[in-house]
Design brief:
By secondary structure, the chain is mainly alpha-helical. 84% of the residues lie in helices and 0% in strands. The chain is rod-shaped and about 70 Å long.
Length: 77
């Protein structure tokens, strides 16, 4: 896992934390809005994590293509 994080991961973590705070502090309203924020935060967090992993995999594939081009000596892509 890389040390670079996507902005969605950070936003998701903050929203998840806010959901936990609302859940534990806000009485009856917290029972409705706390889990809602918690789920929304986790979805955003996971979306950012998947986007980052996809970008890393795409970059790995690009490096592999460049390596194969150099090894094969082909002029076209």
């Amino acid at each position: 896992m890389g040390s670079e994080h996507d902005i969605f991961e950070a936003v998701g973590a903050v929203v998840t934390g806010a959901g936990l705070v609302v859940l534990f502090i806000a009485g009856e309203a917290g029972l409705v809005f706390g889990p809602l924020l918690l789920v929304l935060g986790l979805i955003i967090w996971k979306m950012g994590e998947m986007g980052r992993e996809f970008s890393e995999e795409l970059e790995s594939l690009r490096r592999e293509i460049e390596r194969l081009k150099a090894y094969g000596g082909t002029a076209d892509g």
